[in-house]
Design a protein that fits this description.
There is one protein chain. The chain has about 160 residues and is of the alpha/beta class. The chain contains five helices and six strands; from the N terminus they run βαβαβαβαββα. It is globular and about 50 Å long. Bound molecules: 5-nitro-6-ribityl-amino-2,4(1H,3H)-pyrimidinedione. The site of 5-nitro-6-ribityl-amino-2,4(1H,3H)-pyrimidinedione has 16 residues, from strand 3 and helix 3. 5-nitro-6-ribityl-amino-2,4(1H,3H)-pyrimidinedione binds next to strand 3 and helix 3.
């Protein structure tokens, strides 16, 4: 039997930063509520969760970088919502958010969780922000808890 290393979904004093964009605020607030509720229900303390707001998904990366490099957090959770419009703007905003969040995780060694919805429509976003497809904020928080525990085991 191999030795299996995996993170549990029980928080043990982890410190979390949630970086959330204001754009498409109705959707993102549902993601934030899902993430905070999930962190708390899995054992995190209110005092160990900071909520940082940025204007849009394009700005998420630089703030995730600052948070991840601060030493104040065990995980950073990026939450946002980019909805495809008629122009190429979507590709730039969604692409930059994904690229920058991924890069920060790699360069800092701190798990930076990508909870940014990239959808074709508001309906698809609603479905994934507490609707019939669940809540991406909940999933993101679970990933954060799991990664914090896993990285501690790999130390
Ligand atoms: N920001 C989003 O978070 N979601 C979007 O759907 C969006 N659209 O469609 O334009 C969006 N644009 C703003 C962008 O993130 C920046 O805040 C802005 O370009 C200033 O840098």
């Amino acid at each position: 039997m191999p030795r299996i290393l995996e993170g549990n979904l029980v928080d043990k004093g982890g410190r979390y930063a949630i970086v959330a964009s204001r754009f498409n605020g109705v959707i993102v607030e549902a993601l934030v509520a899902g993430a905070v509720d999930t962190l708390i229900r899995h054992g995190a303390e209110d005092a160990n969760i900071d909520l940082i707001r940025v204007p849009g998904a394009f700005e998420i990366g630089v703030v995730c970088k600052k948070a991840a490099e601060s030493g104040d957090y065990d995980a950073v959770i990026a939450l946002g919502c980019v909805i495809r419009g008629g122009t190429a703007h979507f590709e730039y905003v969604a692409g930059e958010a994904a690229k920058s969040v991924g890069a920060v995780g790699m360069s800092s060694g701190v798990p930076v969780i990508f909870g940014v919805l990239t959808t074709e429509s508001m309906e698809q976003a609603t479905d994934r922000a507490g609707g019939k497809m669940g809540n991406k904020g909940v999933e993101a928080a679970l990933s954060a808890i799991e990664m914090v525990d896993l990285l501690r085991k790999l130390e």
